[in-house]
Design goal:
There is one protein chain. The chain has 491 residues and is α+β, with helices and mostly antiparallel strands. It has 2 domains: 5-174, no CATH class; 186-486, Neuraminidase (6 Propeller), CATH 2.120.10.30. It has 7 helices and 26 strands. The protein has helices spanning 5-32, 34-43, 51-68, 72-99, 116-137, 142-174, 430-435; strands spanning 186-193, 199-205, 208-213, 219-224, 230-234, 248-252, 255-260, 265-270, 276-281, 288-293, 296-302, 309-316, 320-325, 341-346, 351-356, 361-366, 372-376, 388-391, 396-399, 407-413, 416-421, 436-443, 448-456, 463-469, 472-477, 480-486. The longest helix is centred in the N-terminal third of the chain and has 33 residues, at 142-174. The protein is elongated and about 105 Å long.
Length: 491
C-alpha cells in the first residue's frame, strides 16, 4: 500500500523532528556535564585515545545535524549523516557489550539511565527511522538509496573497527596515558583490624599471608586467607655478634629470610619452627634481596666501581658466589636514585621483574641475569624527574626536591605485573583518585598493558602494600589488612 504524498510528508517531518529533539537533547546534556562526558569517553577501551577530540566533535556534530534537518534543501544529506551517526553508535554499543569488559556510558541526561541493551535497541530504532525517512525522501530512487545505505552501514562498522585498533595501538605504542577500567573486575571479600599500622606484607602461600613488622622485626604474623584468624610467631636467631640497622623479613614457604643488606647478612630458616641460621655473612652488600629457591637469590647492590645500582645473583652452596650485571639498570641522571625501584621474583615464569619508581619502564630478566628485555608502563614519564646533588660533607648524593613517583609498589602472579600507580591518568576523575588506589595490570610476557582497577581507601588510608596470590589480592590500608578476589575467568 503506497502512502499518499501528504501522509508521506507528515511521516518524514515527524522523523526529522524526532532526530532534532534527540540530537539537541543529547548534545546539550553532554555540554552541561562536559567534564563527566569527557571522563567517560576516556574510560572507553575503544576510543579512549581520541577522547579529547571526540568529546568536542560529537556534541557539535549533533547540533549541526539538528540545525540542518530543519531545512528541506539540506535535509537529505543530514538524514544520511544522522543515520550514519546512529548506526555508528549502535556498532559501538554492540562491540562494547560483546567484546569489552568495560562499558562506561557517555550519553548524558535520561539516556544515561538506560542499560546497554536498552540503549542498543534505542539507537537501532533511530537507525530504522532514518532508513525509512531516506526511502520516503528518495521514493523514486529505491535502488540508489539501498546502495547508499549499505555503504553507510559498512563505513560505520569499519569506523568502529579502525577506531578501536588505532586506539589500542596508541595506548601501547604512543603511550598517551589513558587507562581502561573494566566493570568491577574484583570483589571485596573481608578485612581485619590489625590495631597497628607498622605491618608490611612479607610473603604468602596459597592459604596464608605473612606480615612483618617494622617496629618488631622478629615477630611474624600469620593470617589465613579468609582473614578469620591470626597467629604470631617469634623468630629465633642464633647467638651472634652481628649487629643490624634495619631487619627485613621475607617469607617464601617453606623458608623465611631475615636480612640487612647494609650489614650484608641474611638469616634463613623453616616456617615449621621459625628458627633461623646464618645463610650469608658479608659476601656482598645489597639494598634489595629476593629469594628464588633454597640456594639462589637475586639482589640489587651498589657497584664499588661506578657507585651505581646493579642487579646481581647470589648462589649459596658450599660457598657463596656473587655475580653482578651492570647492564640491566640504565642510568639517566645519577645511576642511583634514578634506578631505584621494586624488585620481584615471578615463580610461574621463573623471571626477575624490576620496575623503576620514577620512569615508565620495567625489566624482565632470567634468574641468571643473562637475558633481559624491557617493557613500558602506560604513563608518559620516560625520564626520571629527579634532581640530585652531591653533598661533600656527607660524601654522598641526595635528592634536593621531591621526585615524581610514576610506579609505586608492585606485585606479580602468573603472566602479570601489577603496579600501584603513582600518577593520575587522562580523563580520570580527581575524586576517584582521592578515594581509591589504582592498580595497573601488565602482561609482562608480551609487554602489553591490560587494564586498571580501583582499590578503595579504607578509612581514607591509601594502599601502602599489596600482594597477589592466585585470584586473591591482599592489601594493607592503615591498620587494616583486606582481601579482594578477581572475578572468575576474568582474564
Amino acid at each position: 500500500m503506497k502512502f499518499s504524498v501528504t501522509l508521506r510528508n507528515i511521516f518524514l517531518e515527524l522523523i526529522c523532528l524526532l532526530f532534532v529533539l534527540l540530537f539537541v537533547y543529547a548534545a546539550v546534556s553532554k555540554l552541561l556535564d562536559f567534564e563527566n562526558f569527557q571522563v567517560q569517553l576516556g574510560q572507553s577501551p575503544l576510543i579512549s585515545s581520541f577522547a579529547g577530540f571526540i568529546s568536542f566533535f560529537i556534541p557539535i556534530l549533533e547540533l549541526l545535524l539538528a540545525f540542518f534537518l530543519i531545512f528541506p534543501k539540506s535535509r537529505r544529506t543530514s538524514l544520511h549523516l544522522s543515520t550514519f551517526l546512529m548506526s555508528t553508535f549502535s556498532a559501538y554499543i554492540f562491540v562494547m557489550i560483546n567484546f569489552s569488559p568495560n562499558v562506561p556510558c557517555s550519553c548524558g541526561g535520561i539516556l544515561e539511565q538506560l542499560n546497554w541493551k536498552e540503549h542498543l535497541y534505542f539507537n537501532m530504532f533511530f537507525v530504522i527511522l532514518g532508513t525509512l525517512a531516506l526511502y520516503i525522501e528518495n521514493n523514486a530512487l529505491i535502488k540508489q538509496t539501498s546502495i547508499r545505505l549499505l555503504f553507510l552501514f559498512t563505513v560505520s562498522l569499519l569506523s568502529i573497527y579502525v577506531l578501536f585498533h588505532t586506539s589500542e595501538w596508541m595506548k601501547q605504542e604512543r603511550n598517551n596515558f589513558t587507562r581502561s577500567f573494566p566493570h568491577y573486575p574484583t570483589k571485596f571479600v573481608n578485612d581485619m583490624d590489625l590495631k597497628f599500622n607498622s605491618y608490611y606484607i612479607a610473603g604468602s602461600s596459597p592459604d596464608k599471608v605473612y606480615l612483618g613488622n617494622y617496629t618488631a622485626p622478629l615477630i611474624v604474623t600469620e593470617i589465613d586467607s579468609s582473614l578469620h584468624y591470626k597467629k604470631e610467631h617469634y623468630i629465633i636467631l642464633p647467638e651472634s655478634t652481628l649487629k643490624y640497622k634495619s631487619l627485613t623479613l621475607t617469607v617464601d614457604p617453606p623458608y623465611f629470610y631475615v636480612w640487612d643488606g647494609t650489614e650484608a647478612f641474611v638469616y634463613k630458616g623453616s616456617t615449621d619452627d621459625w628458627k633461623a641460621s646464618l645463610y650469608i655473612d658479608r659476601e656482598a652488600y645489597f639494598t634489595s634481596f629476593v629469594p628464588i629457591n633454597k640456594s639462589r637469590a637475586s639482589i640489587r647492590a651498589i657497584s664499588s666501581e661506578t657507585f651505581q645500582s646493579v642487579l646481581g645473583t647470589l648462589v649459596v652452596t658450599d660457598s657463596v658466589k656473587v655475580a653482578l650485571n651492570s647492564s640491566i639498570l640504565i642510568k639517566q641522571v645519577d645511576g642511583l636514585f634514578d634506578t631505584d625501584g621494586t624488585h620481584l621474583y615471578n615463580k610461574q615464569h621463573n623471571k626477575i621483574l624490576y620496575t623503576y619508581y620514577y620512569r615508565n619502564q620495567y625489566a624482565v630478566c632470567d634468574t641468571l641475569l643473562q637475558e633481559y628485555q624491557y617493557g613500558k608502563t602506560i604513563d608518559t614519564t620516560s625520564k626520571a624527574k629527579i634532581k640530585v646533588k652531591y653533598i661533600a660533607s656527607k660524601q654522598g648524593s641526595k635528592l634536593i626536591e621531591p621526585a615524581v613517583t610514576v610506579n609505586k609498589r608492585t606485585a606479580t602472579y602468573g603472566n602479570y605485573l601489577y603496579i600501584h600507580a603513582g600518577l593520575l591518568g587522562r580523563y580520570e576523575p580527581k575524586e576517584n583518585w582521592d578515594n581509591n588506589s589504582i592498580i595497573d595490570v601488565y602482561d609482562f610476557t608480551n609487554n602489553t598493558y591490560q587494564f586498571s582497577f580501583y582499590i578503595d581507601d579504607k578509612l581514607q588510608s591509601k594502599v601502602k602494600d599489596f600482594k597477589i596470590s592466585q585470584d586473591l589480592i591482599y592489601t594493607l590500608n592503615g591498620n587494616y589488612i583486606r582481601t579482594y578476589r578477581f572475578k572468575k575467568d576474568f582474564y
